[in-house]
Amino acid sequence: MHGLMQYHPLLVSSLLKHAARYHGNTEIVSKRVEGDIHRYTYAEAERRTKRLVRALQRLGVKESDRVATLAWNGYRHFEIYYAASGMGAVVHTVNPRLHESDISYIINHAGSTPVFADITFAPLIEKIAPGLAGQVRDYVFMSDEANMPPLELPGGVRVHCYESLVAESVEDYEWPLLDEGSASGLCYTSGTTGRPKGVVYSHRSTVLHAYAVSTADAFGLRAIDRVMPIVPMFHVNAWGVPYAAPLNGAAIVFPGRHLDGASLASLFNAERVTMALGVPTVWMGLLQHMQRTGERLETKPRILTGGSACPPMLLETFTKEYGLKVCHAWGMTEISPVGTCDAPKPAHLGESPEAEMRRKLKQGRALAGIDLKIVSDAGEELPWDGKAFGDLKVRGSWVASGYFGGQPGSALDEEGWFTTGDVCTIDPEGYMQITDRSKDVVKSGGEWISSIQLENIAVSHPDVAEAAVIAARHPKWDERPLLILLPKPGHTVNPQAVLKVYEGKVSKWWLPDAVVVVAEMPHTATGKLQKSVLRERYRDYLTSGGCS
Ligand code: ADP
Fold first, then answer.
1. Catalytic residue at 145?
2. How confident is the model at residue 194 (pLDDT cuts 50, 70, 90)?
3. Which of 407, 433, 462 delimits the end of a domain?
């Protein structure tokens, strides 16, 4: 027997429609690339978004076409999200921090036709436009006529001004009823392993993810919140905030392009932000600013950190010295991105402050709708004892099943699980902790050594700014850990002193075989340590007598 309930497809447009109707006066505030603050309401946002749909139609955009963006977090980017997806096209966010050859590859591979760009990216557009001339017909600069950049583009390519396109359009548009399984967004992985791959989100997956991250033990968003997504809209949809905020009627504060500690602190206080989301690098910048200047966050916002492991010092200082509530989350491009959050369970009530810190440094437990398991090298499921570690697999309604251009299911194993590439433990309460990326783990004589654990210990030394542990080739053990260190500015690092810090913290056989001090560490476009480059450079360090 079928249920007898109404059927309404889960559509991205319904989120904006809801916010405009029930939270019409709630603000969207943006620090613009033009330098000023722009503010308007959800009601106005929906009206302008409908005009933008009309503009997209005039540009020839049809259902399923990809609309690329190269943009910071702001209200115009938000409008493109909803206009493109809402009309049945696909918003294709492109990470402007990638190398221009990757950007061209991604736009080309996705077959995106119009490209929307912030004016700061005009020099980038000039570089990539000749190579995309056969494909991209229209570049739209997200500004008004007064701020349009002077450009030299190949013949046949049209340049538009965003504000003029919107002004020339009417808002007589009704959001169409689409198939909830149709594509709404496209985001490429950072390509840390090979060429970037496109993850194709659907309306259904996006809306379900928005509901799941809204729950109290995840982002816990409310209509009285003022949420600041510092995490970029150009990488995994700013962790779903542009969808979850309208769903809850929360105000949004978009920080634009300046994400340094001083700019963020002033925006936090001026706009009374109650919750913000970002990667540890951003939080470290904010913390250093507050420590240097004495400035504090007056609203004591909730801080959600993710994207890479939360450094223990960050958690301690934010919590104990600044009274901020820190939540730790984990996810990836292929998971829309959020899979786990670290909120407590009844078993943790009354836990000691030390136990709480230990728990919060774990990546957390699965959101309802996400299923996790860890498996051994042989593919057998491992126990949830907090000790056994293996490859993390995931499945759920907002987990990718294939990549752009591929077949559904092609990214999954025979049982329908997606292999994350993370190596983890899961404790008896279901809290997952990443011990490594599978390609980073050091396999010494058949036993696994966690590079992350060794790195965390190294950075607790006061002279060390950043540490990386890679698997170096070894004639006897196959692989042994090699510790690579970047000193803090103005400090020198004594390798022996750093190795001493390991005493009593790890088994002797985990100790790095050698230490290399470097003047610079390579990072990816999303700010993560690029271990593939270090591996390339130092893989034979131990076998070549200490020469790279
Ligand atoms: P990429 O495109 O490089 O895969 P993602 O942004 O999708 O980048 O990154 C996903 C990966 O980031 C995860 O598989 C995991 O290794 C890492 N990651 C994400 N959140 C956390 C976290 N809270 N702690 C540790 N690592 C994390």
1. no
2. low
3. 407
